[in-house]
Amino acid sequence: MSDLQIVADALRRARHLVVFTGAGVSAESGIPTFRDALSGLWQRFDPGELATAAAFRRDPALVWGWYEWRRAQVLKARPNPAHLAIAELARHVPQLTLVTQNVDDLHERAGSPAVIHLHGSLHQPRCFDCQRPFTRLAADPQEPAKGRRIEPPRCLQCGGPVRPGVVWFGEMLPEQALQQAFAAAESCDLLLSIGTSGVVYPAAHVPQLALDSGAVVAHINQQAFAPNSPREHSLVGPAGELVPALLQRAGWQ
Ligand code: BJW
Ligand code: ZN
């Protein structure tokens, strides 16, 4: 039996499904991933220069400009068939928990409610100094040129610089989101890990926790994954084709 059929059968039987996504799920919407050899963001930029609090302290306009460039890309992007199929899955399984590492809002725009964002959001900036949310971001920013420096806005309460509401390296993940993700992984019977390289912790514990707790785990990725257990499966190809194919094989479309 093909891995696609095995996972589709597990999907039909699943009582609690966890969908765990990474940048690859948004790639077909035109959002660059981080680590892909040809198109990844970090082929062109050094993460240490841009995705840490130290980088923001050193050069807030460089970092803010980079995130405004990415926010503009997300605002003009649309959910792709993978996002839409994940939203559709929720109509067929008794319980679905959607956990994403992505900082875009494409799952929400595809119709998935209650998305657990482990690495924050590009759309919820806050003050770097006092942490209060900043609510005056332009809804339709001019797409800034790549690499253009932009001074961050100032906090209305304390005057501190506004930072993107994402989780940088060395920062704690939002505690409640992480706890919910771990609890869901421990209690699910099937986890679909879609479009993630699985190298960033503690998020990368999520699929492993599900496997250790007895669930079936399927990795949907353009790169093959070498399974470590008979309950682990690798489906190789674009998420925008494979997730709809799973729905179809399960007889739901
Ligand atoms: C497709 C596809 C298609 C393409 N279809 N597939 C344990 C061991 C070692 C290190 C650590 C550890 N614990 C903690 C650390 C340190 C660090 C870490 O993990 N470092 C590793 C990189 C080594 N972690 C942290 O610092 C975390 N905080 C923390 O641990 O706090 C506690 C602490 C504090 C102080 C000291 C010590 C501990 C925070 C991590 C925050 C990560 N943030 C980022 C940036 C967010 C903001 C922004 O967007 O700029 O989150 S990093 C970046 O990576 C982003 C992503 O969410 C994350 C994961 O990437 P993802 O989604 O997997 O993307 P890619 O590009 O890597 O992969 C894409 C995949 O898709 C590929 O596999 C493709 O093949 C595939 N693909 N197209 C299907 N069409
Ligand atoms: Zn402030």
From TrEMBL:
Its EC number is 2.3.1.286. Residues 1-253 form the Deacetylase sirtuin-type domain. Keywords: Cytoplasm, Metal-binding, NAD, Transferase, Zinc. The keyword Plastid does not apply. Zn(2+) binds at residues 127, 130, 155, 158. HAMAP family: Sirtuin_ClassIII. This is NAD-dependent protein deacylase. The gene is cobB.
